[in-house]
Amino acid sequence: MEVKRVIGNRRSIRYYLPFRPVERWKVQKMLQAARLASCVGNVTVARAIVIWKDQASPELIKAITPPLGYQQMQTAPCFILWYHDKMSYEVNKWIDDLKNLAEQRRIGEDVEATKAIIERNLRPAFGAAWEQMAVAPLAFMDVGQAVAQATFVAWDEGLGTCLMSSPRLEQIGKLLNLPETAIPVCLMSVGYPAESWEAGGQTSKHPFEEIFFEMQHGKPFEEDSQVVEEMKQEGMLQEPAPLPWRDAELKYLSHALNLEWQLAIPGLAPREGEG
């Protein structure tokens, strides 16, 4: 499928077919896509643990359950915990990663000269700052890029996904044998959608010109209406949610999957008539 249509078709799926397992080879493709994502200095900060629900203990499922994830946790057969390991930025590893880029002819023109510059100029600077850089926004951006590529590959393979909030390290660290240098970023549910792929339409986002600027903040990057029409034709921009039949679909899914109406927030119960 063309990449722009994958972006347009993708939805955050919250209702899955609980009886249909996810093939291991499809998850492998997702992880491979994440591994190939762009990252600073080729340090590859993104890490992931695949959790098969039918093999997980009740204690683990409880620990990874986010506040807003009732439908996903009840129906998805697979979850992926994405996390960042601060030791990816450890200075000796980082320097080796940069030298590896030189050997692959990805940076510099002369391999040995580039390695010498890395040792002379970068090692002292990175040696003094790598621990701060390991928790800087740029590091977490790289995890996001990896997760995004995994998301698109999942959709291209017919799977649905949904990113949920990050479990707390102290709740899951021992259960998953995570190192102390791990920083959980998000939990992803994975499965075959029980809801239609449209999921009631494309989720509306903030207006384009309110979030993108040109040359300075406050000067909108103006949209070209012809480009907008092209993106609609290519399937990247689609009918916004909610489509007329969405309410009926949600009621059907709740009954078919035997789910209660709830957001899984402690103390929040469904109002009368919303079961």
Word description of this protein:
It is a single chain. The chain is α+β, with helices and mostly antiparallel strands and about 280 residues long. The protein has a domain at about 10-90 and about 135-195: NADH Oxidase (3-Layer(aba) Sandwich). Helices cover about 45% and strands about 15% of the residues. Strand 5 (about 215) and strand 6 (about 215-220) form a beta hairpin.
CATH classification class of the domain at 12-90 and 134-193: Alpha Beta
Q: Quote the distance from N terminus to C terminus.
A: 38 Å
Query: What's the tally of helices?
Result: 11
Q: Let me know the average pLDDT.
A: 93
Short characterization:
The protein is of the alpha+beta class and 275 residues long. The protein contains eleven helices and six strands.
Features:
single chain, globular, four-stranded antiparallel β-sheet, 275 residues, NADH Oxidase, two-stranded antiparallel ribbon, alpha+beta, 6 strands
Task: Show the helix and strand layout.
Layout: H1 3-9, H2 24-35, E1 46-52, H3 58-64, H4 70-75, E2 78-85, H5 91-103, H6 111-133, H7 137-156, E3 160-164, H8 169-176, E4 182-191, H9 208-211, E5 213-214, E6 216-220, H10 225-233, H11 246-256
Antiparallel strand pairs: 1-2, 2-4, 3-4, 5-6
Helix pairs in contact: 2-7, 3-8, 5-6
